[in-house]
Amino acid sequence: TRVWIPSFNSDENLRSYMRAILTDQKYKTWKPRRGIVYVKTHKTGSSTVTTILHRLAITHNLKCPVPFGKPGHTFDLSNKTIQDEVKSSLQSWTGHKFPFDMWVNHVTFSPFIFNLVPSASDFAFTTLRDPATRVPSACRFFKCCPYDVNNPNVFFNFASGSQMPRFLDKETGFCRRDDSSTDLAGARPNEPSFDDKYANLEKRISSGSLLPLVTERMEESILVLMNEFDLFPLDAAFQSMKAKSPTVEAPFDPIQARAFNKKLRRVVHAIRSQHRHDWRLYQIANATLSQRLQKLYPVEGELDQQLVALRDMNDRLSRVCEDLGPSDLKEINDTCKRLTEDNVAWILDHNPYKDPGTIWIPPRK
After folding, report:
1. End-to-end Cα distance, the chain
2. The dihedral formed by the CA atoms of 154, 160, 165 and 166, expressed in degrees to the nearest 10
3. Pairing of strands 91-92, 65-66
4. Which of 43, 109, 147, 181: disulfide with 139, CB 3.0–4.6 Å?
């Protein structure tokens, strides 16, 4: 059965819908059809998706683990030591240890993750982004490769010249070759096991056990996610949690614009070539998403109608949350707070570990 987002037509209709559903016992006790495993990777729109899942955990009392380690820390679950540490120390926001109902933290994939969320039945999803935009975004955010927001030529020259391949060989921070493929396959491209693990990664996608969503098609991705787990429409509402990467505009002068666009095309080609596994996965993800959408919305116009309904719900919810008053239910206030609560704030607000000052340090016995 498909989940269908209704047309609310007015902000007051949405507010009335929220009053009814947020106090409905069936809504409060709802559980997803299976456990949720999000293989979260860096700079792929994961903060937006994670905010939806964190809100889901609180609203429906799902056991979602709160990470320890440095902010943005990636759990390498292929490492036996880290597996043991996670089993002994990691806790959900409810104070429970594994098994959990969901996983939404940055992770290097290993089948071990399904030991932590056995109800997921070996199904996971992830988000993938065109490396041509993910790489400069990582450079800017993590400051791990040459980037100057005021001078695009700094990154252009780095990416299109001989410097980038040598730089990537050093695996500097998050500016490493095939960053998404590395975390999803569970091995680095320079490791002997990578080819086999990458081949297995593609098999997981083709078999349907790994669902790749697409950052640049976030609204379509959320519709697929909503139907995959039977989410209520309100639980699929979202606000983008990070500012879009600054766009670099071509010069107004036609001659300069042609030269600029030629250089930009060269940079895009160079990045995709250096991150060929990520680029291939991104193409596979787009094809997979289109197939899923065609299956969900076979009738012409249905997909467009649901995209309009999702945007309308998001816009109206934003206005409702900006206009809260003393007569609004606590449940509406809580939903509005969680709508824009970023990941770090969520972790700090729901820290289950005894010493709040050591949230980023795993507790030791």
Report:
1. 48
2. -50
3. antiparallel
4. 147
320 contacts 12 by C-beta, under 8 angstroms: no
Better pLDDT: 232 or 168? 232
Residue 79, SS3 per DSSP: coil
pTM over 0.85: yes
Strand ranges of the sheet holding 102-103, from the earlier edge strand across to the other edge: 102-103, 36-39, 124-128, 210-214
Which pLDDT score, from 0 to 100, does residue 364 have?
Answer: 37
- The confidence score (pLDDT) of residue 64 equals 97
The sign one gets for the Cα dihedral 149, 74, 103, 93 is negative
Q: Tell me, what's the pLDDT at 360? A: 45
Tell me what the mean pLDDT of segment 174-181 comes to: 90
Choose among 101, 60, 122: nearest CA to 331: 60
Tell me the C-alpha distance between 57 and 62, whole Å. 4
Q: Kindly tell me if the per-residue pLDDT of 241 is higher than 80.
A: no
Q: Per DSSP, which regions of the chain are E strands? A: 36-39, 65-66, 75-76, 91-92, 102-103, 107-108, 124-128, 210-214
| Digit-coded pLDDT (tens) for 256-291 | 667 768 888 999 999 999 999 999 999 999 999 999
Pairwise CA distance, residues 252 & 254, whole Å: 6
Cβ–Cβ < 8 Å for 106, 75: yes
Dist. CA 266–CA 129, nearest whole Å: 19
Residue 241 and residue 342 in contact, taking contact as beta carbons nearer than 8 Å: yes
Across residues 127-150, what is the average pLDDT?
91
Higher pLDDT, 247 or 79: 79
Q: How many CB atoms lie within 10 A of CB 297?
A: 19
The percentage of the chain sitting over the pLDDT mark of 90, rounded to a whole number, equals: 69
Helix (H) or strand (E) holding 53: helix 46-59
Letter string b/e over residues 120-142, b meaning 16 or more CB atoms within 10 A of that residue's CB: beebbbbbbbbbbbbbbbbbbeb
Q: What confidence tier does 361 reach under pLDDT thresholds 50, 70, 90?
A: very low
Max alpha carbon distance in the chain (Å)?
A: 67
In this structure, the strands spanning 124-128 and 36-39 are: parallel
